[in-house]
Write a structure and sequence with these properties.
This protein has 134 residues and is mainly α. It folds into 2 domains: 54 residues, no CATH class; 45 residues. The protein has 5 helices and 3 strands; from the N terminus they run ααβββααα. A 3-stranded antiparallel β-sheet has the order 1-2-3, with no helix packed on it. Strand 2 and strand 3 form a beta hairpin.
Length: 134
């Protein structure tokens, strides 16, 4: 697989999105497949192969380095559940001009406007042709 294809590797509708990403484990499985379609490959040494540790991280069988599926992504070191992040990504990607922080707050039932604004900016900063989040 060269690149994921819409309609095959991405959900086509809200219903399909909700069916694919019901839990954080579903989101992690999807991220793992996107990041390592042929199986785990160490970013440090380039070695193919390793194993998953009890805490969800992966350990390289070549250099012993440890990493997670979310390392180096917008999902890294966040306390926000992946299901919330994935929904925010879906809303951002399917909205004509992105999504406002207030809409994110209301739709995702995020506690504060500031949290929604930071999340929206984090999303916008990682997307191509980044839309402004107000």
């Amino acid at each position: 697989m060269d690149h994921p294809r819409a309609g095959t590797h991405y959900p086509r509708s809200v219903g399909e999105f909700q069916a694919w990403f019901r839990t954080d484990a579903d989101c992690l499985d999807y991220l793992e497949w996107l990041r390592w379609p042929a199986g785990f490959a160490c970013a440090d040494c380039g070695h193919d192969g390793g194993w998953e540790l009890g805490d969800g991280r992966f350990m390289c069988s070549g250099c012993g380095g440890r990493t997670s599926v979310t390392a180096g992504t917008i999902f890294d070191r966040t306390r926000t559940p992946l299901t919330v992040w994935f929904t925010a990504c879906w809303l951002f990607a399917t909205g004509k001009d992105g999504i406002s922080a207030l809409s994110l707050k209301r739709t995702l039932e995020i506690g504060s406007y500031q949290t929604a604004k930071r999340s929206g900016r984090r999303l916008a900063g990682k997307s191509r042709g980044a839309a402004k989040v107000e």
